[in-house]
Amino acid sequence: MKSRPLLLAAVGLAILIGFPFVVANPYYIHLAQTIAIYAILLFGLDIVVGYTGQVSLGHAGLFGIGAYTAGVLYMHFHAPLLLTLLAGIGTTAAFGAILALPALRVTGPYLAMVTLAFGTIIQILINEVTDVTNGPMGITFSKPVLLGMVLDERAYYWVCSVLLVASLVVVHRLLRSHLGRAFEALRGSPIASDCMGVSVYRYKVYAFVISAGFAGLAGSLYAYSERYISPNTYNFELTVLFLLAIIMGGRKTRSGALLGATVIVMLPKLLDDLDLFRYVSVTLAALVAAGAAVQVARGKTTVARSAIPVIGSVALAVLSFVLTSMTDWRLSIFGLITLLVVYYLQDGIIGFVRQTLGWRGHGASDAAAAATLPPPASAVSTAVSQSATPAAQELVAADKVLMQFGGLKALNDVALHVARGTIHGLIGPNGSGKSTMMNVLTGIYVPTAGSIAFKGQSIVGRTSARIALAGIARTFQNVQLFGEMTALQNVLVGLHHTYRSNLLDVALHLPRYLREERAATARAYALLKFVGLEALAGEEARNLPYGKQRLLEIARALALNPELLLLDEPAAGLTAPDIKELVVIVRKIREHGITLILIEHHMDVVMSVCDVVTVLDFGQKIAEGTPAAVQANPQVIKAYLGGELEAPAAH
Ligand code: ADP
Ligand code: MG
Fold first, then answer.
1. How far is the CA of 555 from the centre of ligand 2 (A)?
2. In terms of Cα–Cα distance, which of 411, 498, 408, 434 is closest to 196?
3. In angstroms, rounded to a whole number, what is the distance separating the alpha carbons of residues 79 and 91?
4. What is the pTM of this model?
5. Which residue CA neighbors atom 14 of ligand 1 most closely?
6. Which of 408, 476, 599 to mutate to test the pocket of ligand 1 (most atoms within 8 A of CB)?
7. Which terminus of the chain is more exposed, N or C, with fewer CB under 10 A?
8. pLDDT value for 380
9. CATH of residue 449
10. CA-proximal residue: ligand 1, atom 5 (nearest)
11. Nearest ligand by distance to the CA of 616
12. Quick one: average pLDDT of 440-466?
């Protein structure tokens, strides 16, 4: 099994290098160059679209900046090839930063809007600043020269191929590192990312800048490949084409980007030749039908499940005859294919092929393979590090906290003092302000008034990420896991703060990065073991049973190495045996010297583990004391009987 990727890589490399020997026609070699160049851009675009889940409508503009950086340097300064490529990357990345820094400050569709405007402005600028860019006339290049050698079509194809492979390796390594996990996490749950110390804003910008860098490299390569650039190339249609390529090929895969690039380069050529198009679509339909028949015969799928792709491809083949007799048919076919892909192949063509052939995605199989490795024994004992500071000291001191939403005072003059090393219960009827208190403590809301000190320092106005790194970790009332990531990767996001490696360490797999990754992985396994999830390390979080998801959230929070852990209704929705397990884990966490604030409706849990309990009702503190004292408090009983919940006295 392990040799398959290596074999594939070797075959791929052989095809890549050997292609111009087999196909000598310079026209096809040029097409292959274009595919390689587009693929480089798509690797980068997929980081933004596939991983962080943002939409960029400006990648054609960035591609243009790369091309014109090369063009301007070539035309005015006769700069050598390698220098212009580097300058293309740098300049475009800088433009990416200028775009992303303001646009990503706010959530929502701002990036799409800003990048859309940017694409248009770039085109206008290139047209207007004629002194620099030669305006609508464009810039013509002579054959590129590398280290004194004039490169013909074939030699330049190899240059593009080398850079394609280099980009592939860099992007692949990046996406599998802590940086890639940060990109994926912020898409899975922005709130949880911030609360794990992974600043959503910072990593969105980071992803966009890296993506822009690849667009710049692709753009400058493109300029030499075409040997002529003009402003009209870098238009909105090209941006849409890039996005289509990602969607068609399949997001979050490098093979998807390669396939997408091939499709957007080859399909228009294919559509130029009616007979060839008909021939290809009939062949495709026959192949899909044959593949489905084999799968059904081998019992790997049912007739019903394979019906859709078969019908789809046969319909496409039939349509190829109908449509090719119509005017404007090319556009219709392009639209139709896109529709088919979006509706039926939601993971793109690569995702579909993987599914039909029964291959698992790389990430999943790797994690599953890794899951069988036993974690180093030493790591288990240090899974949760001991907090050495003396007890009987105030860890949290919140006073006169007011949190107002319009006219509603969700927290009204609340004081909360939590002693180090204790388990502090926070109870109250639904809507009494418990979760709001937690959100205020973790920086998700900034209180309207009042003071909050953690270890004697005010945390009011600090970002969630900074508060998390200062030592406050949490779980969420509505589970906030990174669904598409494995259990192990979820915990690794919590361990993001243990990394110091930068992009270079990651791209070159320098010792620092490898050391940090090894240490974090061992630690993550130990944490999973701590909550009893080590056997599920390779499972995607969204596929875990609910109770396990809650435990995984706790493991991830512990990865922050917190001094204070906030649990928001950890037992909600859990079965009785799961609750027992949870109580054991909560006690174990406290034994490690971590202070806990526990919001819980299950009174038996609260009564058995809490040292102190604070009761909220309508945003106000109505009681505080030992569990027994609170349980007997008439005001508390009244609040609960008036509310919709079980009375604490009932247990
Ligand atoms: P609890 O966790 O105790 O059930 P919450 O803290 O979630 O209660 O909510 C307290 C009150 O504040 C509720 O009335 C809720 O509707 C309100 N609230 C919470 N968050 C917001 C918000 N972002 N905007 C407006 N109202 C909110
Ligand atoms: Mg709540």
1. 21
2. 498
3. 15
4. 0.85
5. 431
6. 408
7. N
8. 42
9. 3.40.50.300
10. 433
11. 1
12. 95
| Angle, alpha carbons 225-226-230 (nearest 5°) | 135
What are 14-21's contacts with CB under 8 Å, separation 24+?
A: 16/161, 16/164, 16/165, 17/158, 17/161, 19/157, 20/153, 20/154, 20/157, 20/158
- What's phi and psi for 170, nearest 5 deg? -65, -50
Closest CA to 448 of 408, 506, 494, 392: 408
Q: Which residue is closest in CA terms to ligand 1's atom 25?
A: 405
Task: Look at ligand 1, atom 18, and give the residue with the nearest C-alpha.
Answer: 410
Distance 500 CA to ligand 2 centre (A): 35
Residues with CB under 5 A from ligand 2 (ion): 435, 477
Residue 84: inside a domain, yes or no? yes
Measured in angstroms, how far is the CA atom of residue 53 from the centroid of ligand 1? 28
> Are the C-beta atoms of 184 and 6 separated by less than 8 Å?
no
The percentage of the chain sitting over the pLDDT mark of 70, rounded to a whole number, equals: 88
Query: Ligand 1, atom 27: nearest CA belongs to which residue?
Result: 405
Average pLDDT, the chain: 87
Positions of E strands within 39-147:
139-140, 145-146
Lowest mean pLDDT among 71-85, 233-247, 285-299, 449-463: 285-299
Asked if residue 383 belongs to a domain, the reply is: no
The alpha carbon dihedral of 52, 57, 62, 67 has a sign of positive
Exposed, middle or buried, 554 (CB in 10 Å: 0-12/13-18/19+)?
A: buried
Q: Determine the structural domain holding residue 461 and report its residue range.
A: 391-471+583-651
Atom of ligand 1 nearest to the CA of 445: 23
Q: pLDDT class for 47, splitting at 50, 70, 90?
A: very high
CA of 615, nearest ligand number: 1
Q: Which residue owns the Cα nearest ligand 1 atom 21?
A: 405
Q: Which of 177, 207, 235 is where one domain is finished?
A: 235
Average pLDDT over residues 15-24: 88
Query: At which of 235, 254, 288 does a domain end?
Result: 235
Would residue 345 count as lying in a domain? no
pLDDT of residue 388 exceeding 50? no
